[in-house]
């Protein structure tokens, strides 16, 4: 690599974390986000940079547009997805945090990612670019090919959905750790009373197998149904689980499980008012390859 290319690569690397964080929030897939960022890297090498004033803004526009192109096909894929769709889990959310943003900049929770998934591609992009990555609406308008006023409306609609999905009172980190540890112990023992005491009455259990691993095809809703399901899974899992370890999954305490045959699964949670409000079981092997390597 000659000196010019080394300099180009060094400039791009300064923004890789920012760009990967944007692409992951747009797509819900770390693997796809990394592909998009690599595509942006190749485009950066082909760009005449004499006219580029703000490198980060320029690269953010490139990544956002690439993601919008992918979202069109992704939404079609998700419509035919087998069972509930969950985002690809990430273990180190600091690698995807947004610089200088407010609360949303450090929120990669599964609950937020699912809310973003329910937005239209343009609402999702406008909300993320403005509220999370601090672009002004003139810049957002340039990315989306809309007027600044239209982008304000798109971001506002996205913001309403995101705020409505967030709990009014968020559990502390210590409370989340306690609940996750207690759930792990109760689930492995299959103790129905202990499980019931940890779950919200309207708790929802999601399992994402994507048609490639056995999983519930619909969310299971309600404390009694979820307790019965977990008790049954615990009875089956005792014979096939080789390893269960704690992990921070999308910024919250969870578990990574490895079966005797090498298959990996991840469990994440959503906590509300001192209870477990949602359980997310990620089984699709296409989304867990990076965990299998680790």
User: Would you tell me the overall average pLDDT?
Assistant: 89
- The count of strands amounts to 6
> Given the helix and strand composition, which structural class is it?
alpha+beta
* Overall tally of structural domains: 2
> Total number of helical segments?
12
Low-confidence regions: none
Strand portion: 15-25%
**Rg:** 20 Å
Helix content: 40-55%
Shape: globular
Helices and strands, in order, run as: HHHHHHHHHHEEHEEEEH
Strand order of the largest sheet: 2-1-6-5-4-3
Q: Largest sheet at a glance?
A: 6 strands, mixed
How many angstroms separate the termini?
30 Å
Short description:
With 294 residues, this protein is α+β, with helices and mostly antiparallel strands. It is built from twelve helices and six strands.
